[in-house]
Amino acid sequence: AQSVSQHNHHVILSEAASLELGCNYSYGGTVNLFWYVQYPGQHLQLLLKYFSGDPLVKGIKGFEAEFIKSKFSFNLRKPSVQWSDTAEYFCAVSGSGNTGKLIFGQGTTLQVKP
Amino acid sequence: EAGVAQSPRYKIIEKRQSVAFWCNPISGHATLYWYQQILGQGPKLLIQFQNNGVVDDSQLPKDRFSAERLKGVDSTLKIQPAKLEDSAVYLCASSSRLAGGSYNEQFFGPGTRLTVL
Questions:
Q1: Contacts A49 to B, Cβ<8 Å
Q2: Which of A97, A98, A104 has its CB closest to that of B43?
Q3: pLDDT given at position A56
Q4: pLDDT per residue as tens digits for the range B53-90
Q5: H-type helices in chain B, by residue range?
Q6: Which of B41, B56, B108 sits opposite A43 (nearest CB)?
Q7: pLDDT for position A113
Q8: What is the sign, positive or negative, of the torsion defined by CA atoms of A46, A109, A24, B43?
């Protein structure tokens, strides 16, 4: 079955700490991978995406993610978080050349303490 | 560029009543998606349109949910009759297609928060 698993449901960090959010997926075939973010009171927006090429992708606001095909993982990282990074983060997968349908993980709530 | 528009933003109804949600995608985006997001979970696809045709409605509870995109632009999602378990945020998203035919990233609207009492 197609699924996405996010390792942490709720993460609390202090400002300037490093962040890594885990994401593993189960999907047959070639995949496209995404991280979306939802800031308080705002709608879902794309943080970064991987379609092909360099498995290390950089997104907005200093975030990056690494696609490790052998581990079916797409972990999100940021070297130094800010209070404004407080949000909910969703990992999602779709099949390349498929319908574009996104399968989401359950989300990780990140709380950054000033 | 204007984003995906949705209305209403909030709706409270009693069980067995009907409700409708409206979505206007980003101009030029032929692909439109409706997702259901239950509290504490990630969004789950209900239905996908390509222009005015249905691509995937395998997860749509067809006994009570219906959706249409008659002119290939705006879309309406309806629930009739609503159940308590339909309480969720209903998200609309749209995307374009890439040169090779695959789908680009999806842009999401603000969602409609439905509470069924």
A1: 105
A2: A104
A3: 97
A4: 999 999 999 999 999 998 889 999 999 999 999 999 99
A5: none
A6: B108
A7: 96
A8: negative
